[in-house]
Amino acid sequence: MKSTHVRAADIQERWYVFDASTQPLGRMSAKIATLLMGKDQPTYTPSELCGAHVVVINAAKAQVSGKKDDQKTYNFYSGYPGGLKELSLETMRERRPADIVTLAVRRMLPKNRLGRQMLKHLKVYSGNDHPHTAQQPVPYEAPSQG
Q: Which of 16, 56, 98, 131 has its CB 3.0 to 4.6 Å from that of 140, i.e. a possible disulfide?
């Protein structure tokens, strides 16, 4: 059996749209990370950027379960002594709603140069509108199991 290696020139561009208000944040982030890496394709190559472009709308309405709105915190460190900032999920929704989805997906991607390139294929918008209609993104539907 012969193994194949896909080159960057052979990769077809794919665009998907996710609505963050319809599914839980963690499950949605895992699906997005899989699409960005290209692991949903039979031509997956770990050393190439072969994933899809993903547009996420309604990030401000991302669903979480339990008491995460009050209890989940995001830490940011400026690099200076005493520079640790801590924001709750509720505060993040008000100030930086797109970062809720971006941080969840970023932490599921590889921690290297290729992972940073993959993250550039993620476009997150807090509202219902996005400027990527020319790319004709397809609403993502999970493959049926069974």
A: 16
Domain 13-64+92-139 fold: Ribosomal Protein L13p; Chain: A; (3.90.1180)
Kind and range of the H or E run holding 86: strand 84-88
Q: Could you read off the pLDDT of 95-134 as tens digits, one per residue? A: 999 999 999 999 999 999 999 999 999 999 999 999 999 9
Q: Would you list the domain boundaries of the chain?
A: 13-64+92-139
| Nearest-angstrom CA–CA distance, 144 and 58 | 24
Closest by Cα among 103, 104, 146, 97 to 125: 97
pLDDT the model gives residue 145: 61
Q: What is the DSSP letter of 109?
A: S
